[in-house]
Specification:
The complex is a heterodimer. Chain A is mostly beta strands. Chain A contains no helices and eleven strands. Chain A has strands at residues 5-7, 10-13, 19-24, 31-37, 44-50, 53-56, 65-68, 75-79, 88-95, 106-107, 111-115. In chain A, a hairpin with a 6-residue loop joins strand 7 and strand 8. Chain B contains no helices and twelve strands. In chain B, strands 2, 5, 6, 10, 11 and 12 form a six-stranded mixed beta sheet that branches. Classes of the chains: A mainly beta, B mainly beta. Chain A binds chain B through residues 40-45, 48, 55-56, 58, 89, 91, 93, 98-110, 112, and chain B through 4, 33, 35, 42-47, 50, 52, 91, 93, 95, 97, 100-104, 106-109.
Chain lengths: 116, 116
């Protein structure tokens, strides 16, 4: 079974530029999560999708971050415009359902973003 | 609001010995879940173990066990018979579990190094 795929693996941009990250979850997984992990910290959940609907986006900075999951499969996370503090690893994860939450969550390798 | 505290930034253990990684939490929710994840240097988060707040038995998964002390609000991870491959960052997380929601809060992590 293929795991969660993310691309690109690394990205370097200048502040005020825009960037997009792509995630392909495990086939059949209804729930998809985007996390931000700043160096030296634990991941922070940005947004959670159930199929193509948003379950929670309370920690997503909506003035600059957006995410979509068209057709309930792949997802894209965008930052526009980027700030220096957005430098982090962006993790995508998926799970079959969101029962008790997190129990069967599988993570991708992450995209490391550096904003200069 | 939820809070996870991992007070050990780094831990060292001899191969084949047991090690305990500390985690304390704070929440006003009555129903919640506690999780531990492993993050090797490759960056992918790996789910290890889950404990529900109403579970009477401590969770175990192979060499991992969760020492859950609800009154003390602690959820320590015990790794028995440490292996060199256990060297990684370990994150404790919690989420309210009412209504099937999953909005996790992660701690800052503990770096574990296993010596041969």
């Amino acid at each position: 079974e293929a795991g969660v795929a993310q691309s690109p693996r690394y990205k370097i941009i200048e502040k005020r530029q825009s960037v997009a990250f792509w995630c392909n979850p495990i086939s059949g997984h209804a729930t998809l999560y985007w996390y931000q992990q700043i160096l030296g910290q634990g991941p922070k959940l940005l947004i959670q999708f159930q199929n193509n609907g948003v379950v929670d986006d309370s920690q997503l900075p909506k003035d600059r971050f957006s995410a979509e999951r068209l057709k309930g499969v792949d997802s894209t996370l965008k930052i526009q415009p980027a700030k220096l503090e957005d430098s982090a690893v962006y993790l995508c994860a998926s799970s079959p359902i969101s029962r008790q939450g997190g129990y069967e969550q599988y993570f991708g390798p992450g995209t490391r973003l550096t904003v200069t | 609001a939820q809070k996870i505290t991992q007070t050990q930034p780094g831990m060292f253990v001899q191969e084949k010995e047991a090690v305990t990684l500390d985690c304390t939490y704070d929440t006003s929710d009555q129903s919640y879940g506690l999780f531990w994840y492993k993050q090797p240097s490759s960056g992918e988060m790996i789910f290890l173990i889950y404990q529900g707040s109403y579970d009477e038995q401590n969770a175990t998964e192979g060499r991992y066990s969760l020492n859950f002390q609800k009154a003390r609000k602690s959820a320590n991870l015990v790794i028995s018979a440490s292996q060199l491959g256990d060297s990684a960052m370990y994150f404790c997380a919690m989420s309210p579990s009412s209504g099937g929601s999953y909005i996790p809060t992660f701690g800052r992590g503990t770096s574990l190094i296993v010596h041969p």
